[in-house]
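Regression report. Comparing outputs from two consecutive submissions.

Submission 1:
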Amino acid sequence: MEELHLNVSLLRARIPNLTVAARSAGLRPATVSNLCTGKIPVGRAEVRTLAALASLAGCTMDELIIRGNPLGMLETGIKVLDLLAPLVKGGSIGLVARQNVGQLALLTELMHRFKTMDYATVFWKPAEHTKGIEELFHEAEAVCDTAAETYERILQYAKSRDVILGADRAMVLSGELFDLEEQLKSAGIRPVTTILVDVSGESVDEELPFGPLDTFLRFDAELTTRGLFPAIDPVASTSVMLEGGQLEPLHLSIQQQAKKLMRRYRDLRPLFHFRGEEKLPESERVLFKRGERLEAYLSQPFYIAEPYTRKKAEWIPLRDTLEDVRIILEGGADHVPVKDIHFTGRLMAKA
């Protein structure tokens, strides 16, 4: 039977004081609380209770009730991902880039970080060998050559841990990944988080290079040339976590403001560099400089690159990223030189 869950994030976003609102609507606050925590299954709730909650939230019953597993954010400690395009736990994440722009480095870094969080990390090795893939082999807990071996490894690990699976686009095109997912579902395995890359770099111009995704991460070669790593496009990258009240209201608000600023900053870059700062209105100069600081802040050293960059990597909790970005958006870092924000960790240590 299909699992049903309340869209708790939507309720919190639409109804700031849920307890008071529930009581005013004639509902028992304890009942609403137990529905939100899952102590009372949605299937056992009275229709009038669900209808009252939908009315309070100003949403439909379809928006209020999530069918299947509710989405959960997979925090990475990487600022640009957690802020702008959160990874979906148990979902499909696609990394789209040309060769040598950083997609394998990001997957390797994610494998490293998840391994330290006691996730089981599995990489399904593509037939094509490419530069940088050896480091990925080192960071993955298991490297598999075949679909059968990958299935057995996941089956083994999933008994006690959540699994992160890295795979190449070739497995999507061949249909092998779909077959693997069906096998795992039939075996009753908890959802595996799948991170897809394209070692050939040929899919970058395709509209749906991996098919439907929960998180889409597009790389920008121009950021690479300016030493801004990870070179994630802050405007084009996105996540289904941004839809339907899946994020906390503060996160969603700051994310939307940050993306709006980055979009305008990118529009202004050619004008700023070819026509000069003096040709821009004062209001646009302020936006440009804040966008420049935000872009620099979203760069970050990786653990796997410490021997080469000599830069100490950091895990930046989401709450700290949100606070730093809020400060930048509100002008609290206007006095901080861009070079002091570039490729570092937290802003507060520099402000």
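Submission 2:
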Amino acid sequence: MNAEHASARLVVGYARGDADLVADEVWALEAHLEGCRLCRDRLSDAVTAEAPAVAALTEAVWSDLGPQLDAAVPAPPRRYRARLSAWTTPAMTPWLAMVLAVTLLALLLDLAAGPGSDRASLVLLFAPVLPVCGVAASWSRGLDPAYELTASTPRAGLHLVLRRTAAVLAVVIPALLAGGWATGVTAAQWLLPCLALTATTLALGGVIGVTRAAVAVAAGWAAVVLAPTLATSRTAFVLRAEGLPVWGLLLALGVGVVIARRGAYTVLGAHR
């Protein structure tokens, strides 16, 4: 539990569902509530006082569900199902599909680009955002069976999409590097910048908020890489194979900051 507690403004605004609360404040408050019993009690009192309709609805739902939950006795799973459920969940299906899709897409786009070309590649220019969009789509309402459960958890939204993108690419890129070493296809070249910038966004998000960090990183990419490359029609150094060590260093720095400041999202003062 943090020594700092949520302000009355945040607790009351969260209980009422005020629209003027920014996303970073909501994420920080929800993360803080996970480990602070005092603030949870204050929130419960605020809901009762500020949103009696919500409190009444919650009581009605629990009164209806209580007898059904007590009476429901799940059937014992079969042995093979029990073993499978110990390693997989329904929510893993989109994750596995996204890993396979990103790997296949990387290989196809790298082959389609053609070897030895020095002209600017649109794939490389928009590489940092393409996997993020794919991950967001794979966990959308229509594809993710656990969407509603996930959407109600603390720090859902952009922060969770970036974390899932990093998890997917952390699995895909080593496999692509090994495959590229064996086949000569450098498919990891356009995925490594995405992983490095995703880690950088998460690292900055612990200081200025994830939304502001994402805007800052996107603006930096557009100013430093996108605009000069489109102006000269030549691939920038950081987008070539020779620039992979640069992205590796940026990735290491970003991961180091995220690990060192892993509790930053539970500090309310960092998001005011």
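Expected: both submissions complete independently.
Actual: both completed, but the second showed a warning that disappeared on reload.
Relevant detail on submission 2: The chain has two domains: 8-71, 89-271.
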